Amino acid sequence: MSYSPPDPPHEVPADIVSKLDDQPPEVLRQVARFAEELAEYHEREARLAENEESNQVEERPEDLPDDVPSKATITVKEINDNRYYYWQWREGEKIRSKYKGPVDSDN
């Protein structure tokens, strides 16, 4: 562990770096968790939009529950330092989720 502050990525705007630099460690950890969840949300939105655009009818996976549409994708959510798979799909303007199971820690 270095005793000097880390260099911020060039892609992060200076005003964000400045605001983060003034925050206590617990707030920074909360921001990191939020940023990770927000990144997953944006990636999921992009995948769902891409799937809607392609309108490809794919074969229904065997483990897909009856109440989950075939257009659903699998995403990973972290809750209390545990990772879980969820089926997710769009219904109009809303994102719907259904629990699938824990992420195997051996992978």
Automatic annotation (TrEMBL):
Residues 8-22 have a biased composition (Basic and acidic residues). Residues 55-104 form the DUF6788 domain. It comes from the Archaea. Residues 1-22, 44-73 are annotated as: Disordered. This is DUF6788 domain-containing protein. It comes from Halogranum gelatinilyticum.
